[in-house]
Specification:
This protein has about 180 residues and is an all-alpha fold. It has helices at about 5-10, 20-25, 40, 60-90, 95-140, 150-160, 180-184. The protein is elongated, with a radius of gyration of 52 Å. This is Phosducin domain-containing protein.
């Protein structure tokens, strides 16, 4: 029995089957345009020892595992590369801190060498002006230099009636004759 083309494509096999009509077909049954092929030669199973074909034993499992790991590592490397490229595209570019420090030192050295004298004069004048301003501001603040003896009834009234700029110090003592109170 000769297989039709469809049967051959679908994988039908004629192993261990002999047909009496097989000889008639090869002897010239009438179709001269049809090429004569040996059906056993066409239906040979593929050579499974070829490295491209899958293996079903333990070696095949190990080979599949290695192939899977290789593909996984390639995919991970590709994803990591994409992440790095994305980070480079979306990150702000700036100098590292060490370069900032070097640049700052460089500008300080160049400014010191060129404007040393004028900067010193300016800073001393500015310092004197600022000290004078602070002294004038302190002169306008009230000073009291007095010690008041308070009782519990007048304590809240005396503290609340002082100005907000005045610092109130409360000294609680037992003995009035102690001189340490007057030293403060």
């Amino acid at each position: 029995m000769a297989l039709s083309f469809d049967d051959k494509v679908l994988g039908e096999k004629v192993h261990n089957y002999c047909s009496s009509s097989e000889d008639e077909h090869s002897a010239g049954s009438g179709d001269e345009n049809e090429p004569v092929t040996n059906t056993l030669e066409c239906l040979k199973p593929p050579n499974l020892s070829h490295p491209g074909y899958p293996q079903t034993g333990p070696k095949g499992v190990v080979a599949d595992y290695k192939h899977f790991k290789k593909l996984q590592s390639e995919r991970d490397a590709e994803e990591e590369q994409k992440i790095i490229e994305y980070a480079k595209q979306h990150s702000l570019s700036c100098r590292p801190y060490s370069e900032d420090v070097k640049a700052c030192e460089k500008t300080i050295h160049t400014s010191e060498s060129s404007n040393d004298d004028s900067d010193d004069e300016f800073l001393t004048q500015y310092r004197q002006n600022r000290i004078n301003e602070l002294r004038k501001a302190m002169d306008y603040l009230p000073t009291f230099n007095k010690i008041y003896d308070l009782v519990a009834d007048t304590f809240i009234e005396e503290v609340d009636n002082t100005s907000k700029d005045t610092t109130v110090i409360v000294f609680i003592y037992e003995n009035v004759s102690s001189l340490s109170c007057f030293k403060i």
